[in-house]
Amino acid sequence: MSASTPPVNVTVTGAGGQIGYALLFRIASGQLLGRETPVRLRLLEIPPGLRAAEGTALELEDGAYPLLHGIDVTDDARAAFDGVNIALLVGARPRGPGMERSDLLEANGAIFGPQGEAINAGAADDVRVLVVGNPANTNALIASAHAPDISAERFTAMTRLDHNRAVAQLARHLHVPVRAIDGVVIWGNHSASQYPDITHATVDGRPVTDLVDERWLTDEFIPRVAKRGAEIIDVRGSSSAASAASAAIDHIHDWVNGTGERWTSAAIVSDGSYGVPEGLVSSFPVRSVDGAWRIVPGLAIDAFSRERIDASVAELVAERDAVRALGLL
Ligand code: NAD
Ligand code: LMR
Question: 69, 146, 163, 190: which is the annotated catalytic residue?
């Protein structure tokens, strides 16, 4: 870092919550953007969460992070997003036991229109937005729709946690390190309808489909990954926080720094690839090239995968129609 490297403005919403607490210290330490890049943090909360966010800010200060060039805490979205380069939209209500993420559609969807407008009003030209708050795909769609001056490619939603879960479950089943696994894809919605696809996956170059049986794939692997969020809520008593923060770091880190040849999964605006209607925010296999997500083209989709992708995409269409009917889009 040269003395003159300008800090990157990173805004985290819901900064007083569980994910915020797991995320902010990692950003301050350089794990989001690299150990050469200074950051200025803006913590956005609603009034009931402000004290918790202020407490987190005090602890950030006490970390004496060399890369941390300032912390502001606010409940004013316009101030929080003024000049923002990286926006992590975490603030939203989590689901509890027995709920689906789509049960949060109306309550949480209403958060993302005004935040989209505030991003539109003040963000830097290179802004990158990651929506974590659920239902993340449709919330990203809402935010993007309220930011007409910003390319829809700049609004993404997080399925990296699902991707990481799929890689970890495969590695565990096959008794190999996670690093040996390549080519997993999460398709569709960050919900129980998502499709964790191992058709193209390899372990040290060998096709995974040669190593796992179909029963394990359909009865264990796919439901385990798709319902892992509910399992965490059941066992932990509240929704995933540290693993979600870690996945958010992975998503932004790869978006900014590039993925190389290996692909990952992210929910980005569809260009119509793989039969996903243009404009929906859906999870795809993606590489980050020159600072932009690119959908990996030309993967063969078999009949089993087609059916699963179509089912998850149908849910995204239904969510889009529901928020449209609520006047949120
Ligand atoms: P939490 O309840 O601990 O924290 C949420 C915080 O958001 C609270 O402090 C609340 O005051 C704040 N908030 C609410 N509305 C706000 C607004 N309009 N502006 C700014 N802040 C606001 O919840 P959490 O565990 O941190 O989870 C946050 C969200 O992330 C939930 O919706 C959860 O379901 C979701 N989540 C998504 C993934 C994913 O993979 N996409 C993973 C885990 C959790
Ligand atoms: C998760 O996948 O852990 C989060 O989306 C939280 C949830 O509600 O499942």
Answer: 190
